[in-house]
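@channel anyone free to eyeball this complex?
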Amino acid sequence: MLNPILAFSATRRMRSFRTLLIAGAYTLVMLAAAVLTMFVLFREEVPMSQLSSGVRCYSILMVLQFFLLVLIAPAMTSGAVAGERERQTLDLLLVTETRAFRLITGKVAESLAVLALLLVCGFPAVCLTLLSGAVTLTQLLIGELFLLAIAFAAVSLGVLASTLCRSTVASGVVAYLLLILVAVITTVPLFFAFTDEMAAVVYDPAALARMSTGKALSMVFPTLLANPFLGLLFLLHGQTGILSSLMEYRDTGRLLCGFMLLNRVGGETVALICTACMTALGALLMPLSALILRKKTGC
Amino acid sequence: MLKLCELSKSYGQVQALDALSLEIGEGQLHGFVGPNGAGKTTTMRILATLLKPTSGTAQVNGADVVRSPAEARKQIGWMPDFFGVYDSLKSWEYLDFYARCHRLGTKERKQMTDRLLALVHLEDKRDAYVDSLSRGMKQRLCLARALIHDPKLLLLDEPASGMDPRARADMKSILRTLREMGKTVLISSHILPELSEMCDSLTILDHGHLVFSGSVAELSDKMNGNAPLIIRLQEGCGGETVERAVACLKEMPFLQELLQEEPYCLKARLEGGEEETARMLRELIRQEIPVCDFHRAPMNLEKVFMEVTGDA
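replying in thread with the prediction:
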Protein backbone atom coordinates (compact mmCIF):
# COMPACT_ATOMS: atom_id res chain seq x y z
CA MET A 1 0.00 0.00 0.00
CA LEU A 2 1.26 3.49 -0.88
CA ASN A 3 2.59 5.39 2.10
CA PRO A 4 -0.44 7.47 3.26
CA ILE A 5 1.78 10.36 4.33
CA LEU A 6 3.28 10.52 0.85
CA ALA A 7 -0.10 10.26 -0.87
CA PHE A 8 -1.87 12.91 1.18
CA SER A 9 1.01 15.31 1.70
CA ALA A 10 1.50 15.26 -2.08
CA THR A 11 -2.22 15.94 -2.62
CA ARG A 12 -2.13 18.87 -0.24
CA ARG A 13 1.16 20.15 -1.63
CA MET A 14 -0.02 20.02 -5.22
CA ARG A 15 -3.22 21.87 -4.32
CA SER A 16 -1.37 24.75 -2.74
CA PHE A 17 -0.69 27.87 -4.74
CA ARG A 18 2.80 28.00 -3.25
CA THR A 19 3.87 24.83 -5.07
CA LEU A 20 2.55 26.17 -8.36
CA LEU A 21 4.43 29.39 -7.72
CA ILE A 22 7.70 27.60 -6.90
CA ALA A 23 7.46 25.31 -9.93
CA GLY A 24 6.57 28.22 -12.20
CA ALA A 25 9.34 30.42 -10.83
CA TYR A 26 11.86 27.57 -11.09
CA THR A 27 10.95 26.90 -14.72
CA LEU A 28 11.12 30.58 -15.58
CA VAL A 29 14.49 31.07 -13.85
CA MET A 30 15.95 28.06 -15.65
CA LEU A 31 14.61 29.10 -19.04
CA ALA A 32 15.71 32.69 -18.52
CA ALA A 33 19.18 31.54 -17.46
CA ALA A 34 19.44 29.21 -20.48
CA VAL A 35 18.31 31.83 -22.97
CA LEU A 36 20.45 34.57 -21.41
CA THR A 37 23.67 32.53 -21.22
CA MET A 38 23.16 31.22 -24.75
CA PHE A 39 22.48 34.74 -25.98
CA VAL A 40 25.68 36.07 -24.36
CA LEU A 41 27.95 33.11 -25.10
CA PHE A 42 26.86 32.44 -28.66
CA ARG A 43 27.20 36.02 -29.82
CA GLU A 44 29.60 36.33 -32.72
CA GLU A 45 31.84 38.90 -31.02
CA VAL A 46 32.69 36.48 -28.20
CA PRO A 47 35.78 34.62 -29.43
CA MET A 48 34.69 31.15 -28.39
CA SER A 49 33.80 28.01 -30.26
CA GLN A 50 30.24 26.73 -30.25
CA LEU A 51 31.44 23.74 -28.24
CA SER A 52 33.02 25.70 -25.40
CA SER A 53 30.05 28.06 -25.32
CA GLY A 54 27.82 25.03 -24.93
CA VAL A 55 30.06 23.69 -22.16
CA ARG A 56 29.86 26.95 -20.26
CA CYS A 57 26.14 27.22 -20.75
CA TYR A 58 25.62 23.65 -19.46
CA SER A 59 27.92 24.27 -16.48
CA ILE A 60 26.09 27.47 -15.55
CA LEU A 61 22.71 25.76 -15.71
CA MET A 62 23.87 22.78 -13.65
CA VAL A 63 25.42 25.03 -10.97
CA LEU A 64 22.24 27.12 -10.92
CA GLN A 65 20.06 24.02 -10.52
CA PHE A 66 22.35 22.72 -7.78
CA PHE A 67 22.07 25.90 -5.72
CA LEU A 68 18.34 26.28 -6.35
CA LEU A 69 17.73 22.75 -5.07
CA VAL A 70 19.98 23.22 -2.04
CA LEU A 71 18.16 26.46 -1.21
CA ILE A 72 14.64 25.15 -1.78
CA ALA A 73 14.97 21.75 -0.05
CA PRO A 74 15.30 23.00 3.58
CA ALA A 75 12.53 25.55 3.10
CA MET A 76 10.31 22.84 1.70
CA THR A 77 10.97 20.31 4.45
CA SER A 78 11.12 22.63 7.46
CA GLY A 79 7.44 21.99 8.20
CA ALA A 80 7.53 18.24 7.58
CA VAL A 81 7.40 17.23 11.24
CA ALA A 82 7.53 20.63 12.98
CA GLY A 83 4.47 21.70 10.97
CA GLU A 84 2.59 18.62 12.11
CA ARG A 85 3.54 19.54 15.66
CA GLU A 86 2.39 23.14 15.20
CA ARG A 87 -0.86 21.96 13.61
CA GLN A 88 -1.27 19.46 16.49
CA THR A 89 -1.69 16.63 14.02
CA LEU A 90 1.47 14.74 14.99
CA ASP A 91 -0.17 13.05 17.97
CA LEU A 92 -3.13 12.08 15.83
CA LEU A 93 -0.77 10.33 13.42
CA LEU A 94 1.15 8.62 16.19
CA VAL A 95 -1.96 6.97 17.60
CA THR A 96 -2.59 5.29 14.25
CA GLU A 97 -0.69 2.30 12.95
CA THR A 98 1.65 4.65 11.08
CA ARG A 99 4.86 4.54 13.01
CA ALA A 100 7.71 7.06 13.13
CA PHE A 101 9.76 5.49 10.31
CA ARG A 102 6.79 5.36 7.93
CA LEU A 103 6.00 8.95 8.78
CA ILE A 104 9.57 10.08 8.08
CA THR A 105 9.92 8.11 4.83
CA GLY A 106 6.58 9.52 3.66
CA LYS A 107 7.70 13.06 4.38
CA VAL A 108 11.08 12.57 2.66
CA ALA A 109 9.50 10.90 -0.37
CA GLU A 110 6.90 13.62 -0.72
CA SER A 111 9.45 16.46 -0.60
CA LEU A 112 11.79 14.57 -2.90
CA ALA A 113 8.95 14.08 -5.38
CA VAL A 114 8.38 17.83 -5.49
CA LEU A 115 12.11 18.48 -6.02
CA ALA A 116 12.13 15.84 -8.76
CA LEU A 117 9.22 17.70 -10.32
CA LEU A 118 11.33 20.87 -10.26
CA LEU A 119 14.17 19.02 -11.97
CA VAL A 120 11.71 17.90 -14.64
CA CYS A 121 10.54 21.52 -14.97
CA GLY A 122 14.13 22.66 -15.49
CA PHE A 123 15.03 19.81 -17.83
CA PRO A 124 13.86 21.43 -21.10
CA ALA A 125 16.08 24.43 -20.34
CA VAL A 126 19.11 22.21 -19.74
CA CYS A 127 18.26 20.24 -22.87
CA LEU A 128 18.81 23.38 -24.93
CA THR A 129 22.55 22.85 -24.39
CA LEU A 130 22.28 19.59 -26.33
CA LEU A 131 21.95 21.75 -29.44
CA SER A 132 25.57 22.86 -29.05
CA GLY A 133 26.81 19.27 -28.98
CA ALA A 134 28.80 20.06 -25.82
CA VAL A 135 27.16 17.27 -23.82
CA THR A 136 25.30 14.10 -24.67
CA LEU A 137 21.87 13.12 -23.39
CA THR A 138 23.45 10.38 -21.26
CA GLN A 139 25.77 12.90 -19.62
CA LEU A 140 22.83 15.17 -19.04
CA LEU A 141 20.87 12.36 -17.39
CA ILE A 142 23.87 11.48 -15.19
CA GLY A 143 23.93 15.13 -14.15
CA GLU A 144 20.22 15.03 -13.28
CA LEU A 145 20.75 11.82 -11.29
CA PHE A 146 23.53 13.54 -9.35
CA LEU A 147 21.24 16.48 -8.60
CA LEU A 148 18.49 14.12 -7.50
CA ALA A 149 20.90 12.47 -5.03
CA ILE A 150 21.85 15.90 -3.69
CA ALA A 151 18.15 16.73 -3.35
CA PHE A 152 17.59 13.47 -1.45
CA ALA A 153 20.36 14.25 1.03
CA ALA A 154 19.16 17.86 1.45
CA VAL A 155 15.57 16.73 1.99
CA SER A 156 16.62 14.12 4.57
CA LEU A 157 18.69 16.77 6.37
CA GLY A 158 15.67 19.08 6.30
CA VAL A 159 13.39 16.41 7.75
CA LEU A 160 15.98 15.66 10.44
CA ALA A 161 16.01 19.36 11.36
CA SER A 162 12.22 19.38 11.36
CA THR A 163 12.21 16.41 13.74
CA LEU A 164 14.69 18.11 16.05
CA CYS A 165 12.95 21.50 16.21
CA ARG A 166 9.59 22.53 17.60
CA SER A 167 8.87 25.32 15.14
CA THR A 168 8.99 25.47 11.36
CA VAL A 169 11.12 28.62 11.38
CA ALA A 170 13.74 27.13 13.71
CA SER A 171 13.73 23.95 11.68
CA GLY A 172 14.46 25.87 8.46
CA VAL A 173 17.42 27.66 10.09
CA VAL A 174 18.79 24.40 11.52
CA ALA A 175 18.43 22.69 8.13
CA TYR A 176 20.53 25.37 6.41
CA LEU A 177 23.11 25.17 9.22
CA LEU A 178 23.28 21.38 8.86
CA LEU A 179 23.82 21.73 5.11
CA ILE A 180 26.63 24.21 5.69
CA LEU A 181 28.08 21.89 8.33
CA VAL A 182 28.12 18.94 5.93
CA ALA A 183 29.77 21.08 3.25
CA VAL A 184 32.41 22.45 5.65
CA ILE A 185 33.22 19.12 7.32
CA THR A 186 33.72 17.42 3.98
CA THR A 187 35.74 20.30 2.52
CA VAL A 188 38.20 20.93 5.37
CA PRO A 189 40.39 17.86 4.54
CA LEU A 190 41.04 19.39 1.13
CA PHE A 191 43.35 21.86 2.87
CA PHE A 192 44.75 19.78 5.70
CA ALA A 193 44.60 16.08 4.81
CA PHE A 194 47.47 16.05 2.34
CA THR A 195 51.15 16.14 3.29
CA ASP A 196 53.94 17.80 1.32
CA GLU A 197 55.33 14.34 0.58
CA MET A 198 52.04 13.29 -0.99
CA ALA A 199 51.95 16.53 -2.94
CA ALA A 200 55.46 15.88 -4.28
CA VAL A 201 54.27 12.54 -5.73
CA VAL A 202 51.00 13.95 -7.01
CA TYR A 203 52.63 16.94 -8.71
CA ASP A 204 55.11 14.68 -10.54
CA PRO A 205 53.37 14.22 -13.93
CA ALA A 206 55.11 10.90 -14.60
CA ALA A 207 54.31 9.50 -11.15
CA LEU A 208 50.71 10.68 -11.39
CA ALA A 209 50.30 9.10 -14.80
CA ARG A 210 51.67 5.79 -13.49
CA MET A 211 49.36 5.84 -10.49
CA SER A 212 46.38 3.51 -10.82
CA THR A 213 42.84 4.80 -10.28
CA GLY A 214 42.51 2.55 -7.23
CA LYS A 215 45.72 3.88 -5.72
CA ALA A 216 44.60 7.46 -6.33
CA LEU A 217 41.25 6.68 -4.76
CA SER A 218 42.93 5.19 -1.69
CA MET A 219 45.00 8.37 -1.25
CA VAL A 220 41.97 10.69 -1.44
CA PHE A 221 40.61 11.65 1.97
CA PRO A 222 37.22 9.86 2.06
CA THR A 223 35.07 12.84 3.07
CA LEU A 224 36.08 14.68 -0.11
CA LEU A 225 34.10 12.09 -2.06
CA ALA A 226 31.03 13.02 -0.03
CA ASN A 227 31.40 16.74 -0.69
CA PRO A 228 28.49 17.85 -2.88
CA PHE A 229 30.34 20.90 -4.24
CA LEU A 230 33.38 18.86 -5.25
CA GLY A 231 31.02 16.24 -6.66
CA LEU A 232 29.38 18.86 -8.88
CA LEU A 233 32.73 20.35 -9.87
CA PHE A 234 34.15 16.99 -10.91
CA LEU A 235 30.92 15.95 -12.62
CA LEU A 236 31.21 19.02 -14.82
CA HIS A 237 34.95 18.48 -15.24
CA GLY A 238 34.41 14.84 -16.19
CA GLN A 239 31.72 15.76 -18.70
CA THR A 240 33.18 18.94 -20.14
CA GLY A 241 36.76 19.28 -18.88
CA ILE A 242 36.15 22.67 -17.27
CA LEU A 243 39.00 22.19 -14.79
CA SER A 244 41.59 21.14 -17.39
CA SER A 245 43.57 24.37 -17.20
CA LEU A 246 43.59 24.14 -13.38
CA MET A 247 44.98 20.61 -13.55
CA GLU A 248 47.98 21.84 -15.50
CA TYR A 249 49.23 23.95 -12.58
CA ARG A 250 52.19 22.54 -10.70
CA ASP A 251 53.96 23.39 -7.44
CA THR A 252 51.03 25.09 -5.75
CA GLY A 253 51.72 23.27 -2.52
CA ARG A 254 49.14 20.96 -0.96
CA LEU A 255 46.13 22.99 -2.02
CA LEU A 256 45.49 21.29 -5.35
CA CYS A 257 46.72 17.87 -4.21
CA GLY A 258 43.18 16.65 -3.58
CA PHE A 259 42.03 18.06 -6.93
CA MET A 260 44.86 16.24 -8.75
CA LEU A 261 44.02 12.95 -7.08
CA LEU A 262 40.29 13.32 -7.75
CA ASN A 263 41.13 14.15 -11.37
CA ARG A 264 43.21 10.95 -11.55
CA VAL A 265 40.22 8.99 -10.21
CA GLY A 266 38.09 10.49 -12.98
CA GLY A 267 35.48 13.27 -12.94
CA GLU A 268 32.38 11.21 -13.56
CA THR A 269 33.60 8.44 -11.25
CA VAL A 270 34.00 11.01 -8.46
CA ALA A 271 30.53 12.36 -9.23
CA LEU A 272 29.03 8.87 -9.15
CA ILE A 273 30.76 8.07 -5.85
CA CYS A 274 29.44 11.39 -4.51
CA THR A 275 25.97 10.43 -5.80
CA ALA A 276 26.23 7.15 -3.90
CA CYS A 277 27.48 8.97 -0.77
CA MET A 278 24.61 11.48 -0.91
CA THR A 279 22.11 8.68 -1.40
CA ALA A 280 23.60 6.78 1.54
CA LEU A 281 23.55 9.95 3.68
CA GLY A 282 19.91 10.54 2.82
CA ALA A 283 19.02 6.92 3.52
CA LEU A 284 20.88 6.91 6.85
CA LEU A 285 19.28 10.12 8.03
CA MET A 286 15.77 8.69 7.68
CA PRO A 287 16.07 6.01 10.42
CA LEU A 288 17.97 8.54 12.52
CA SER A 289 15.10 11.01 12.23
CA ALA A 290 12.62 8.24 13.03
CA LEU A 291 14.65 7.29 16.09
CA ILE A 292 14.74 10.91 17.29
CA LEU A 293 11.01 11.23 16.70
CA ARG A 294 10.36 8.06 18.69
CA LYS A 295 12.56 9.35 21.52
CA LYS A 296 10.84 12.72 21.55
CA THR A 297 7.30 11.45 21.37
CA GLY A 298 7.76 8.19 23.25
CA CYS A 299 5.82 6.37 20.49
CA MET B 1 -13.02 -2.91 28.80
CA LEU B 2 -10.85 -0.36 30.60
CA LYS B 3 -8.88 -1.09 33.73
CA LEU B 4 -6.58 1.40 35.43
CA CYS B 5 -4.54 0.20 38.36
CA GLU B 6 -2.64 2.62 40.60
CA LEU B 7 -1.89 4.78 37.58
CA SER B 8 0.45 7.67 38.37
CA LYS B 9 2.19 10.29 36.32
CA SER B 10 4.48 13.03 37.49
CA TYR B 11 6.20 15.81 35.58
CA GLY B 12 9.23 16.56 37.70
CA GLN B 13 7.89 17.70 41.07
CA VAL B 14 4.32 17.99 39.83
CA GLN B 15 2.12 14.97 40.46
CA ALA B 16 -0.40 15.09 37.61
CA LEU B 17 -2.00 11.76 38.43
CA ASP B 18 -1.82 9.98 41.76
CA ALA B 19 -2.53 6.24 41.95
CA LEU B 20 -5.73 6.33 39.93
CA SER B 21 -7.62 3.03 39.89
CA LEU B 22 -10.72 2.64 37.80
CA GLU B 23 -12.70 0.02 35.90
CA ILE B 24 -15.17 0.70 33.11
CA GLY B 25 -17.32 -2.05 31.67
CA GLU B 26 -18.11 -2.68 28.02
CA GLY B 27 -20.72 -0.45 26.40
CA GLN B 28 -20.66 2.16 29.17
CA LEU B 29 -20.67 5.90 28.68
CA HIS B 30 -18.39 7.09 31.44
CA GLY B 31 -17.84 10.72 32.34
CA PHE B 32 -14.46 11.93 33.47
CA VAL B 33 -14.88 15.18 35.35
CA GLY B 34 -12.53 17.52 37.08
CA PRO B 35 -11.36 21.12 37.09
CA ASN B 36 -8.53 22.24 34.83
CA GLY B 37 -5.32 20.50 35.84
CA ALA B 38 -7.12 17.60 37.53
CA GLY B 39 -5.34 15.00 35.40
CA LYS B 40 -8.06 14.20 32.85
CA THR B 41 -5.99 14.92 29.74
CA THR B 42 -2.95 13.18 31.23
CA THR B 43 -5.04 10.04 31.78
CA MET B 44 -6.43 10.27 28.24
CA ARG B 45 -2.95 10.67 26.77
CA ILE B 46 -1.65 7.69 28.71
CA LEU B 47 -4.56 5.63 27.42
CA ALA B 48 -3.92 6.89 23.89
CA THR B 49 -0.31 5.55 24.28
CA LEU B 50 1.11 9.04 23.86
CA LEU B 51 2.44 9.28 27.42
CA LYS B 52 4.10 6.69 29.57
CA PRO B 53 2.87 6.51 33.18
CA THR B 54 5.39 6.93 35.98
CA SER B 55 3.90 3.86 37.64
CA GLY B 56 0.82 1.68 37.54
CA THR B 57 -0.87 -0.05 34.65
CA ALA B 58 -3.64 0.67 32.18
CA GLN B 59 -5.32 -2.03 30.13
CA VAL B 60 -7.71 -1.62 27.24
CA ASN B 61 -9.63 -4.80 26.49
CA GLY B 62 -6.73 -6.75 27.99
CA ALA B 63 -3.99 -4.89 26.08
CA ASP B 64 -1.51 -3.05 28.26
CA VAL B 65 -0.95 0.47 26.89
CA VAL B 66 2.74 0.41 27.85
CA ARG B 67 3.67 -3.19 27.04
CA SER B 68 1.51 -3.66 23.93
CA PRO B 69 0.84 -0.14 22.63
CA ALA B 70 0.20 -1.32 19.07
CA GLU B 71 -2.50 -3.71 20.25
CA ALA B 72 -3.99 -1.03 22.51
CA ARG B 73 -4.06 1.52 19.68
CA LYS B 74 -6.27 -0.80 17.63
CA GLN B 75 -8.84 -0.75 20.44
CA ILE B 76 -8.74 2.99 21.03
CA GLY B 77 -10.19 5.93 19.16
CA TRP B 78 -8.85 9.20 20.55
CA MET B 79 -10.38 12.61 20.04
CA PRO B 80 -8.28 15.31 21.74
CA ASP B 81 -9.47 18.73 22.84
CA PHE B 82 -8.12 20.31 19.65
CA PHE B 83 -9.17 19.82 16.03
CA GLY B 84 -5.92 18.79 14.38
CA VAL B 85 -7.24 19.17 10.87
CA TYR B 86 -5.43 19.81 7.60
CA ASP B 87 -6.37 22.52 5.19
CA SER B 88 -6.54 21.71 1.45
CA LEU B 89 -8.22 18.37 2.20
CA LYS B 90 -11.84 17.50 1.68
CA SER B 91 -13.85 15.88 4.47
CA TRP B 92 -13.83 12.44 2.86
CA GLU B 93 -10.13 12.74 2.04
CA TYR B 94 -9.39 13.62 5.66
CA LEU B 95 -11.13 10.46 6.86
CA ASP B 96 -9.62 8.40 4.04
CA PHE B 97 -6.15 9.59 5.05
CA TYR B 98 -6.55 8.35 8.63
CA ALA B 99 -8.13 5.14 7.33
CA ARG B 100 -4.97 4.59 5.29
CA CYS B 101 -2.86 5.37 8.34
CA HIS B 102 -4.76 2.57 10.10
CA ARG B 103 -3.97 0.33 7.10
CA LEU B 104 -7.56 -0.20 6.04
CA GLY B 105 -8.13 -1.69 2.58
CA THR B 106 -9.59 0.32 -0.30
CA LYS B 107 -13.13 -1.09 -0.08
CA GLU B 108 -13.19 -0.90 3.72
CA ARG B 109 -11.97 2.69 3.61
CA LYS B 110 -14.74 3.79 1.31
CA GLN B 111 -17.39 2.01 3.38
CA MET B 112 -16.16 3.43 6.66
CA THR B 113 -15.82 6.96 5.28
CA ASP B 114 -19.39 6.97 3.96
CA ARG B 115 -20.80 5.33 7.08
CA LEU B 116 -19.07 7.72 9.45
CA LEU B 117 -19.94 10.83 7.48
CA ALA B 118 -23.56 9.71 7.76
CA LEU B 119 -23.20 8.98 11.48
CA VAL B 120 -21.90 12.46 12.24
CA HIS B 121 -24.45 14.05 9.89
CA LEU B 122 -21.87 15.36 7.43
CA GLU B 123 -22.90 13.47 4.27
CA ASP B 124 -23.67 16.74 2.52
CA LYS B 125 -20.22 18.08 3.44
CA ARG B 126 -18.40 15.10 1.90
CA ASP B 127 -16.63 17.21 -0.72
CA ALA B 128 -16.29 20.35 1.38
CA TYR B 129 -12.80 21.43 2.38
CA VAL B 130 -12.11 20.81 6.06
CA ASP B 131 -11.06 24.40 6.71
CA SER B 132 -14.44 25.62 5.42
CA LEU B 133 -16.40 23.67 8.07
CA SER B 134 -17.87 25.29 11.18
CA ARG B 135 -16.48 24.51 14.63
CA GLY B 136 -19.24 22.03 15.41
CA MET B 137 -18.80 20.30 12.05
CA LYS B 138 -15.05 20.05 12.55
CA GLN B 139 -15.66 18.57 15.99
CA ARG B 140 -17.98 15.95 14.47
CA LEU B 141 -15.50 15.22 11.70
CA CYS B 142 -12.83 14.67 14.35
CA LEU B 143 -15.17 12.26 16.11
CA ALA B 144 -15.57 10.40 12.82
CA ARG B 145 -11.79 10.30 12.50
CA ALA B 146 -11.51 8.73 15.95
CA LEU B 147 -13.98 6.05 14.83
CA ILE B 148 -12.40 5.29 11.46
CA HIS B 149 -10.76 2.01 12.52
CA ASP B 150 -13.85 0.86 14.43
CA PRO B 151 -12.32 1.00 17.92
CA LYS B 152 -14.01 -0.54 20.94
CA LEU B 153 -13.09 2.28 23.32
CA LEU B 154 -13.50 5.95 22.51
CA LEU B 155 -11.55 8.58 24.42
CA LEU B 156 -13.18 11.96 23.98
CA ASP B 157 -11.38 14.88 25.54
CA GLU B 158 -13.79 17.81 26.01
CA PRO B 159 -15.81 16.91 22.89
CA ALA B 160 -18.36 19.68 23.29
CA SER B 161 -16.09 22.54 24.27
CA GLY B 162 -16.83 25.80 22.50
CA MET B 163 -19.98 24.46 20.84
CA ASP B 164 -23.30 26.26 20.69
CA PRO B 165 -26.36 24.56 22.30
CA ARG B 166 -27.54 23.05 19.00
CA ALA B 167 -24.12 21.60 18.23
CA ARG B 168 -23.95 20.22 21.79
CA ALA B 169 -27.32 18.57 21.33
CA ASP B 170 -26.07 17.05 18.05
CA MET B 171 -22.97 15.73 19.76
CA LYS B 172 -25.04 14.23 22.59
CA SER B 173 -27.30 12.45 20.11
CA ILE B 174 -24.26 11.02 18.30
CA LEU B 175 -22.83 9.80 21.60
CA ARG B 176 -26.10 8.07 22.44
CA THR B 177 -25.98 6.36 19.05
CA LEU B 178 -22.44 5.23 19.79
CA ARG B 179 -23.59 3.71 23.08
CA GLU B 180 -26.33 1.89 21.21
CA MET B 181 -23.64 0.58 18.86
CA GLY B 182 -21.95 -0.97 21.89
CA LYS B 183 -18.96 1.34 22.07
CA THR B 184 -17.42 2.10 25.41
CA VAL B 185 -16.98 5.85 25.70
CA LEU B 186 -14.85 7.80 28.15
CA ILE B 187 -15.69 11.51 27.95
CA SER B 188 -13.81 14.16 29.82
CA SER B 189 -15.24 17.52 30.71
CA HIS B 190 -15.02 20.11 33.45
CA ILE B 191 -18.78 20.63 33.27
CA LEU B 192 -20.48 18.01 35.46
CA PRO B 193 -24.14 18.76 34.55
CA GLU B 194 -23.30 18.34 30.87
CA LEU B 195 -21.95 14.83 31.43
CA SER B 196 -24.53 13.77 33.99
CA GLU B 197 -27.27 14.03 31.37
CA MET B 198 -25.78 11.36 29.16
CA CYS B 199 -23.34 9.28 31.19
CA ASP B 200 -24.03 5.97 32.94
CA SER B 201 -21.29 6.59 35.45
CA LEU B 202 -18.87 9.29 36.48
CA THR B 203 -15.39 9.70 37.84
CA ILE B 204 -14.39 12.95 39.47
CA LEU B 205 -10.72 13.85 39.64
CA ASP B 206 -9.11 16.66 41.54
CA HIS B 207 -5.39 17.44 41.50
CA GLY B 208 -4.66 13.95 40.20
CA HIS B 209 -6.68 12.20 42.91
CA LEU B 210 -9.82 10.18 42.48
CA VAL B 211 -12.56 11.98 44.41
CA PHE B 212 -15.56 9.98 43.33
CA SER B 213 -16.42 7.10 41.02
CA GLY B 214 -19.91 5.74 40.55
CA SER B 215 -23.28 6.51 39.01
CA VAL B 216 -24.78 10.00 38.82
CA ALA B 217 -27.50 8.95 41.28
CA GLU B 218 -24.91 7.70 43.77
CA LEU B 219 -23.07 10.99 43.51
CA SER B 220 -26.22 13.01 44.14
CA ASP B 221 -27.19 10.82 47.11
CA LYS B 222 -23.74 11.11 48.57
CA MET B 223 -23.66 14.84 48.23
CA ASN B 224 -27.22 15.37 49.45
CA GLY B 225 -26.16 13.77 52.73
CA ASN B 226 -23.74 16.64 53.17
CA ALA B 227 -26.12 19.36 52.06
CA PRO B 228 -26.85 22.12 54.61
CA LEU B 229 -30.10 22.08 56.64
CA ILE B 230 -32.55 24.90 56.14
CA ILE B 231 -34.42 25.78 59.36
CA ARG B 232 -37.24 28.24 58.89
CA LEU B 233 -38.83 29.74 62.02
CA GLN B 234 -42.34 31.05 62.31
CA GLU B 235 -42.58 34.48 60.73
CA GLY B 236 -42.78 37.23 63.40
CA CYS B 237 -41.76 34.98 66.30
CA GLY B 238 -39.44 37.74 67.51
CA GLY B 239 -35.74 38.39 67.66
CA GLU B 240 -35.43 36.82 71.07
CA THR B 241 -36.75 33.48 69.77
CA VAL B 242 -34.31 33.56 66.87
CA GLU B 243 -31.48 34.25 69.33
CA ARG B 244 -32.62 31.29 71.45
CA ALA B 245 -32.64 29.08 68.34
CA VAL B 246 -29.13 30.21 67.40
CA ALA B 247 -27.88 29.56 70.96
CA CYS B 248 -29.52 26.14 70.97
CA LEU B 249 -27.92 25.17 67.67
CA LYS B 250 -24.51 26.45 68.70
CA GLU B 251 -24.55 24.14 71.67
CA MET B 252 -24.72 21.13 69.36
CA PRO B 253 -21.27 19.50 69.31
CA PHE B 254 -21.69 18.31 65.71
CA LEU B 255 -22.52 21.75 64.27
CA GLN B 256 -19.99 22.78 61.63
CA GLU B 257 -21.37 26.06 60.35
CA LEU B 258 -24.38 28.28 61.08
CA LEU B 259 -25.59 31.10 58.89
CA GLN B 260 -28.58 33.41 59.24
CA GLU B 261 -29.59 34.05 55.65
CA GLU B 262 -32.88 35.83 56.37
CA PRO B 263 -34.38 37.18 59.69
CA TYR B 264 -36.26 33.92 60.33
CA CYS B 265 -34.22 31.45 58.27
CA LEU B 266 -31.11 29.64 59.48
CA LYS B 267 -28.73 27.45 57.50
CA ALA B 268 -26.83 24.80 59.47
CA ARG B 269 -24.17 22.42 58.27
CA LEU B 270 -23.67 19.31 60.42
CA GLU B 271 -21.02 16.75 60.88
CA GLY B 272 -22.74 13.41 60.83
CA GLY B 273 -25.84 11.77 59.41
CA GLU B 274 -29.52 11.28 60.11
CA GLU B 275 -29.08 10.66 63.84
CA GLU B 276 -27.50 14.07 64.38
CA THR B 277 -30.15 15.72 62.21
CA ALA B 278 -32.95 14.15 64.27
CA ARG B 279 -31.24 15.15 67.52
CA MET B 280 -31.03 18.73 66.37
CA LEU B 281 -34.72 18.87 65.50
CA ARG B 282 -35.67 17.24 68.84
CA GLU B 283 -33.65 19.83 70.75
CA LEU B 284 -35.26 22.73 68.88
CA ILE B 285 -38.74 21.39 69.60
CA ARG B 286 -37.87 20.67 73.24
CA GLN B 287 -36.92 24.32 73.66
CA GLU B 288 -40.29 25.26 72.10
CA ILE B 289 -38.74 27.07 69.16
CA PRO B 290 -41.45 27.55 66.49
CA VAL B 291 -39.87 25.62 63.58
CA CYS B 292 -42.17 25.69 60.56
CA ASP B 293 -39.81 24.19 57.98
CA PHE B 294 -36.84 21.87 58.33
CA HIS B 295 -35.24 20.39 55.19
CA ARG B 296 -31.96 19.81 53.37
CA ALA B 297 -30.98 22.36 50.71
CA PRO B 298 -31.24 20.79 47.27
CA MET B 299 -27.83 20.30 45.63
CA ASN B 300 -27.56 20.76 41.89
CA LEU B 301 -24.69 19.09 40.04
CA GLU B 302 -22.78 22.33 39.67
CA LYS B 303 -22.77 22.69 43.46
CA VAL B 304 -21.85 19.01 43.84
CA PHE B 305 -18.88 19.51 41.55
CA MET B 306 -17.69 22.55 43.47
CA GLU B 307 -18.24 20.70 46.74
CA VAL B 308 -16.39 17.59 45.67
CA THR B 309 -13.45 19.42 44.12
CA GLY B 310 -13.18 21.69 47.13
CA ASP B 311 -13.72 24.98 45.32
CA ALA B 312 -17.01 25.93 46.93
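from a first look: Chain B touches chain A at residues 48-52, 69-70, 73-74, 76, 78, 80, 82-89, 93, 97-98, 100-103, 145, 149 (CB under 8 Å).
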